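Review form for a predicted model. The reviewer records the input and the model, then writes brief findings.
Reviewer: anonymous (R2)
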Amino acid sequence: MLILALRQSAFRHTQHTLNHTRRHFSCTRHFLSDLHTVRNLGIIAHIDAGKTTTTERMLHYAGFTRTLGSVDSGDTVMDYLAAERERGITIQSAAITFGWQNHQLHLIDTPGHVDFTVEVERAMRVLDGAVAIVDAVAGVQAQTRTVWRQAQKYGIPRVVFINKMDRDGADWKKAVGDLETKLGARTLVLTVPDPTAELDVKGGGGLRRWIDAVTLERMEFDLAADASGATLRRTTLCPDTHPASFAEAVRARVCLVEALSEIDHEIVDAFLDVDGTHTLVPPGSVRAAIRRVTLANKACPVLLGASFRNIGVQPLLDAIVHYLPSPEDVAAPLAKGADGRVAALGEASDGLVAFAFKVVVDRQRGPMVYVRVYRGTLDARMPLINATRNTAERAGRLLQMYADDTEEIPRIMRGHIGVILGLKQTRTGDTLVAQPKGKARPALLQLHGIEVPPPVFFCSVEADSPQDERPLADALASLTLEDPSLHVSVDPETGQTLLQGMGELHLEVVRDRLVRDYRVNAGFGAMRVSYREMPGCRVDQVFEYAREIAGRPARANAHISIAPLDGADGADGADGNRVEVRMPDVLEAPGCAPVVAGSEPFEAVRRALHSGLTNALLRGTILGFPIARAHVKVAQIEYFGEHASPPAAFRACAMQAVFQAMAASRPVLLEPIARCTVVCPESHLGAVLGDLNGARHGRVVSLEDAEASDGDAGNALKVLVAEAPLSAMVGYSSQLRSLTAGRGSFTMEVQGFGPMSTLQQQRVIKESQGIY
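Model under review:
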C-alpha cells in the first residue's frame, strides 16, 4: 500500500508539473507555419537502452517539465499507463510536442520490446527522422537490428546516441564498430570523452568534460549532487592551455573530416580552401556536410552520453535540430489514385491528405485518431472522406498531444502531427481527404498503409457470467481498434473467444488492461502458440456452386489448384501465400451478352474470385489455423450469365473449392520458429545450453563474449543465439531465471514457420482437441 501511495503521489506531482509549465511553454504550443523549423522524430532502441530516460531529460532541458522524471520512480511523462509504470518499460508509443532552439519538435517515444514492434512500425510510417539509442556496454542488440531495419525500410535519416557511458564496461568504440559491422551504417563520431576528465564520483558517476569534434570545443556538464545537468559550459580549446584535450579534438576532427570527404564533395572543396588543414575547416561547413550526408542516408552522426547522469542530452537536441530533416526536406509520399496509378503527392493547393497512423480509445472522448497531415490544412469540424474505406467522416475537435495531456487547437497544418476527435470508422492505416463542396466527387488518393505481422500466441477469454459478455465484447472491440496486432476470433467448433497477439508479454498486458482499465469480469485460458497449416501436395479441384442467393438461383463453376509453395517468392501476404486468378478475356454464356475484360461486370467476378481465395486461406482444415506457403490458383471458370452467376456465387464457389482441395492435399502443420538471444554468466552457460538443446529442441547458432563482465573474471557474460520452436519457449523467462540465479536475460523474435514431425503434429492435434 505504501508503494502504491508513493506512485500515486508521484503521478499527481507529474500532472501538477505539466499544468504548471503550460503557461511557461505556451510559446511552442502552436503549429509553426515555417516547416523548416519543424522536426518529426522518434526515439528507437532495444528495450532498456534508455529511450524514456533520454526523452525525460529532453523535456526538462527544453523547459517542458520542472523536475526530472524517473522510470524507477514511476513518474515519467511519457510512460503514463499503469502497466508501463509497474513494469518500467514502454508499451504504447506516446507523442509529445516541445521546443528547442526556436524549433518545434514532434517526438514519439516508441517501445523497445519485440512484442510491441507494431507500435514502432506505425510511428516510423509518419516520421521524418529518428534517434537510435545504443547501450555503450551491450552494443547493438537484437531489437536494435529490428528497429534499424524498420527505419531503413522507410528511408528515415538517423542520429545515433550511445548511452550509458557511465557504466562499467562501457566501450563506445566497440559500439561504433557494432553499428558498422552489424547494421552496415557509416558512422560520423561528433563527440568523444575528454582524456583529462575523471570520473565524477560525487555527482553519481559520469565524465564531466567532453569534446565536440565539430566546433573543437570542450563541453562541461554540471554534475553537482543537486544539479540536473541543465548547465552546459563550452570552452574553445587551445593547444597552449589545453594540450591533451586539444590533441584529442584534433584527432576527432581529422577522423570526422576524412570520413565526410569520402561521401561529400563540398567538404573537400572547403578542406582545400584552407590548404588541407583539418582543424581550419569552418564548423559551419562541417555541420552543413554532416546534414547533407545524413539527409541522403549516406551516414549517421554519433554522439555519446549518459542520460541517467544528465550527460550529453543537450548536444543530442542540437544534433536533432542541425542534422535531422524537416518536412520540407523529405520527398512527398507516394499515393495511389482512383485509377490505380501511383504517383508522388502534389502540393498543398491540391487539397487535404492526412494519414491516420494510430487510434486510442478514450472512455470519455471516444476514439482519438492520430494523424500526420501530408497536404493541405485540417480544420476543426471539417467534413472528410475516408479514402481507404470510401466512407464519409467529420472531424470534431482537434488536439495537440503532450503524452496523456492535451490542448485543443483550431487546425493541423501540413507537415504536423495531431489528433482528431469524432471519427467513427477510421482505423490505423487509413487515408483521409477533404470532402469537396457541392456534389463533386473527391480525388480518393490512398497512401501506403501499415504492415502488421501475424499473431503467434493466443489464449481463450470467457466472461464470468452472461451479464459480463457485453462489457467484454465492448472492451475487446476497443482494444483491437487501438492495437491492429491484436486479433479476436471465435472458434466455430467450441464457441470460445480467442485472443491472439504478438507474444506472452503482449497478451499479459492486454489481460491486465481488460481487468484493470475496463473492469471486465472474465477468465483466461493458458497461453498457446498459433500454428499454420500448409498443403502437403498439389491438388486440382473442380467445384460447382448451385444455391439460392437473395432468393434467386445462382450457379458458378471453378477449377482451382492448390500446391505447397517453397519460400515466400512471389507471396502476397505475411504468411507466404500466392493467389492467382486466371480468366478468359471474354465471359460468354448461352443467350447472354458477352462480358469483356476491363468492364465492371468482368472485374467484379475477378474481385469475387480473389476475395474467395484469400478468405479461404484464413482457416485450414486440420485445426482451423491460417493456411501458409500455399499457391492457390483459379485455372478456369464457367460463366452462366450476369444474373445467373453473380459475383457472390463465384466468391462462395472459390472458398468451398479451396476447402475441399486443402482437405485432400494431406495438409501438415507448421510451427513458428523463434530466434533467441540469451545473455548469461559463463558459469551458468552449461545449464542454459543443456536446456535449449534438450528440453526445448533448440539449435545453437552462435556463441560469443558479451565484452562485459560482472566484476568477476570467472563470470564473464556470454551471448548465446539459438533457434527453437516457439511452443517450447513458452514460460522460458522464469526457467532462465532459475537456471542462472536471476542473472540471465533473453530476447526472442519469430523468424518464420517451419515443418513439424509427424509425432509432434499428432501431439499438437490431440492437445488442441482436448485429448491427452
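Findings: Residues 1-29, 201-205, 708-714 have pLDDT under 50 and may be disordered.
Further findings: The first helix runs from residue 2 to 24.
Recommendation: see findings above.
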